[in-house]
TrEMBL record:
Annotated SUPFAM superfamilies: Cupredoxins, Oligoxyloglucan reducing end-specific cellobiohydrolase
Domain Phytocyanin: 158-255
Pfam families per record: Cu_bind_like
Keywords: Signal
Signal peptide range: 1-18
Source domain of life: Eukaryota
Gene3D superfamilies reported in the protein's UniProt record: Cupredoxins - blue copper proteins (2.60.40.420)
Organism: Salpingoeca rosetta (strain ATCC 50818 / BSB-021)
Protein name: Phytocyanin domain-containing protein
UniProt GO molecular function: electron transfer activity
Amino acid sequence: MSVFVLLVLVVLVAAVLAGTTSAQEEVETVLWQFQREDGQFLSGQALQDALGPLTVEQGTIVRFRWEPYGFAHGLFQVTNQNDFDNCNLVGTELVARSTRGDYNATLDPGTYFFVGGVGSNCETGMKVRVTVLEQGETVPPTVMTTTPIPAIESDLAKVVVVDWEYNVPKPDVEANQDDIIQFRWSGSISSSVRRVTQENYEACNFNNPLEIVSESTTSNVVNVTGLDVGRHYFISAEITHCSSAHMSVAVNIVPRLIRYWITLYPSDVSSTTDSSVSLTLTGYDSELRVWTSPATIVNEATTGSGDSVALDISAEEAHTFEIVARDVGTPIAVRMSAVPGSGFAPSRVRVRARAEDLDDGDARESKTFTCSRPEGGDVDGVSAINCIVPADGSTSTPPPTSTNTTQQERDCECFRQLLAHHPSQRVLACSKDGCFATVDDGTAGWSTLPAIRSLIGTGTDSRLFAVSPTNATLASIDGGLTWQEVTETSTIATPATVFSDPLFEGSGDTPLDRHVQTSSSAAADWGITRKGVLVNTAGTWAFRALWSCTCDGSCGLKCDQPLF
C-alpha cells in the first residue's frame, strides 16, 4: 500500500491596496513570513508552495509584507534561477533585516526571483519566482461567449432566455449567478411575470408575489438580475395561464463563474505533455453548501479565430494555467483526468481564485493539494488523478494497531464502520481504536480523525454527520477535516455501513454485499470484513487496512454497536 504525506498549504491571495496605489491598480500580496494567515507555521517546500510561483499581468503591483510575530525577515532579489535554487544572495537587497516589512514591486514583463535575505530564511523555503506577462497576454483562459448587453456586469456572465410564450411547456432553467434571466414573448395574448414562493408556484397562486417582474402585456423582453443562489419560481398572473397554459418556470441559480489560476507541480515520473487534462473542483460556500464544478480543460487556449490550441504541461517545473469554472467557495478536493499514457502525473496542484472576480471583502487563501493516482489503474480509457486535503496538516497515519488488551477482550469490543463521502471524495472507517480517513481508493494512506468516535452518514445536504467522544452530534462540510456541533442532522441519504454477521462472511477476505460502498468516482468499491478494510478497483478485493482484532464473534456477535 502506497502512503503519501499530504500537506494543507495556504497563501494569502486577496488583492489589497498598499502604499500609494490607486483603486484601479491590481495588487498581488505576498505574505513574506513563516506564520500564515491561519496561524500555522510553514517551512521548506510547504512554505515555498504557499508563496508561489506567481504569475501576474504587467501593471500589477507585487506587494511583499510581513508583520511582527517574533521573527525578522528581509527581501533580496537574485538575478537567475541558479542563484534562486541555491540561495546565493547575489543581486539587490530590497529590504534590510526588519521585524516588519512592506515593499511594493512594479515589474516589467519577464521572470523575477525573490528570496529571504536574513540568515537561513531562503534555505527554509522563503523564496518565490514571479512571472510578469505582457499587457493583454494572459495565462490560457477558457473563453466564454457572452451576449453584449450593458446590464451584464461580469464578462463571464451570459443571457439565459426563457421563452415565455402562451401554452408552450417550459423546462426548468439553470443559470449562473450574475447571468441575466431574460423573459421574451409576443403575440395576441397578454401575459405577465411574477416571482413567487415555491408554495404559490405549486398552487399557481399569483397573489402576494415576491416581485412583479412585468405587468400584463402582449409582448415584452424583460431582464431579471441579482437572483441569489438557489431556486426561484415565476408564474403568469393571468387566470388559468399557470394552471392550464404552461406559464410557469423554475429557475435554479448556481454560483457564478470565476477565474482560477491552477498551478501544476510535476512529479518524478511526469513527462511533458500537451494531451488534454480535465479538472473539476469541489468546495463549500459560506452557507455550508457543497458544490462541484463541471469539468474544465486546464491546458487549452482559444485563439482569436475561435480555434482551440493545446498547451504543454511541463515535466521540468511548476506551470500555471488560467481556467474559468464555477465558484465552489473553499476548495476541499481536486479531481483531474487525462488520456492513459500521456505522462501527466502531478505531485501537487494549487488552486487560487482571481481576486478581481470575488466580492469585496472576500479575501480567499489559495490551497495546495497533494495528488495520487488510483492504484486500480485506468478506467474506461481515462487516467484519474485525485488531489485531496488530509485530515491533519502534517502526516498520514497508519491503520490501527493492536492494543494491550487480550485477544478475547478485543473481540468483545468489536465495532467497525465504513462510509464513502462522495462530496469530499474521501473514505472513512471507524473501529474501537478510532476513526480514520483516506482518499478514494486508499493509495494515499490513512489520516486520523480524533474529533469523532463513530459515523452517522451523509445527509441530503451533502454534510457528513458523526458522533464525538462526548456523544455530541457533529457535522462536517469538508469530509471530516473540520467539525461543528449541531443539534440535529439532515435526512441521511447514505448511512454509514456498520459491520455485523462475522460468522457468515466466510474467510473474511471478501465483504458481504451489505458491507460494501462505492467511492465517489465509481472507480472503486469499498468493503469491511472482520479482518479489515478492502478496496476493489479492478475486480479483485485487496486489503487497505487490518483491524487490531479479528472480530470472530466469540462474545455473541457484538459487532453492530460501539462499546465505550
